Amino acid sequence: METIYNLKELTKKLHYPVATIGMFDGVHLGHKKIIDTIRHYALEKKGESVVITFDRHPKNITENRPPSFLTSLQHRLTLFKRLGVDLAVVLTFDQKLAQMTAEDFIHEILVCWLGAKCIVLGFNCHFGKGRRGNITLVRKLADKYGFEVYECPPVLYRGHVISSTAIREAILKGALEKAEGMLGRPVSIMGTVVKKSGRGKTLGYPTANLNLHHEVRPPRGVYGTRVRWGGQDYLALTNIGLRPTFAREPFASEDETLEIEVHILDFQESLYGKDMEVQFLFKIRDEMSFKTVDELKTQIERDKEVLLKKTFITKPIEG
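Predicted structure:
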C-alpha cells in the first residue's frame, strides 16, 4: 500500500480511482465492508482503491475534544494495508480543512486532484464544513463531474448497528468478546516501545513498554495476548496497571501512571523506538500486589501456564 501525506505527493495519474472518505476509527466490520466495496469496483475496472482519511479526529478541531481513538493513525494505516487498500491519503485536519465546504471538497480533492471515477460512502458518512457532505450531495454532483456513486448499508452485530462508539464502550468495560465481534478481529492496541526502569529484565521477564498515543485500552489486569513481529506471531503476557508491588506511594492519577507492559515469550530482539501491535486473546486475572519479588515471579509462571494451555486449546497461533 502506498501512503501519501501531502496532496503534492501524488505525482502519477491514476487509472480508475475508487475512493472513500472517513476517519475509520477502529477499522471495524462496517469499515471493512466499505473497503471491500472500493476494492471490488477497483478490481472490476482495473483501477485503484483509495482511502482518504485524516491525521486526527475532526472533533479534536471542531469541538476542541481531547484525542481518544480506538486506532491511532499508524494503527489505521497498518489495518488498511492488511485489508488490501492500494492508496491511503492522509489529510491534515486543520482549521482550513474544517472550513472547506463539502462541495469544494468534492470538486478540489476528489475530482480535480484525485480524479475519482467512483465514490463509495458509508450510510452515515458526513464531511465538509458543518458536516453537510453526505451520500445525497455526492449523488447530486455525480453527473456534473462524471463519477459513479455507491452507498454501503450499515453492518449489524446482534441486531445493532456496529459503531466505533459501541466498540469503545465495550473495550473500556472489558467486554473483549463483544468488541471482537464488532471489529471482526481481536481487540488490539498499537504503541511505540519506550524505555522504562528495565525492572522486568532484571527479574528475568523483559517487557516492552508501550506509549499508546491516546488509543483506548482494556481495563487493568493481566491478559493473554499475541504480538506479530517480522511476519511471525508470538504469544505474550500483557499487564495493564499501576505496578502496585513496586509503587512507593499512592498514585494521584491513573492516566499518568498506568503502564502497558508486554512480556513476549521466546523473543530476544530489541524493540525500543519501534511501533508494535498487541492483540488481546483473553483476560487471565486482575492486577495483584505481591509482598515479595519471588511471589510475583511465581505468579508470572502461573500466568504463562494459563496462556500456553488456553491458546493451545482455543486460540492456535496462525502460521
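Summary: Residues 293-314 form the longest helix (22 residues).
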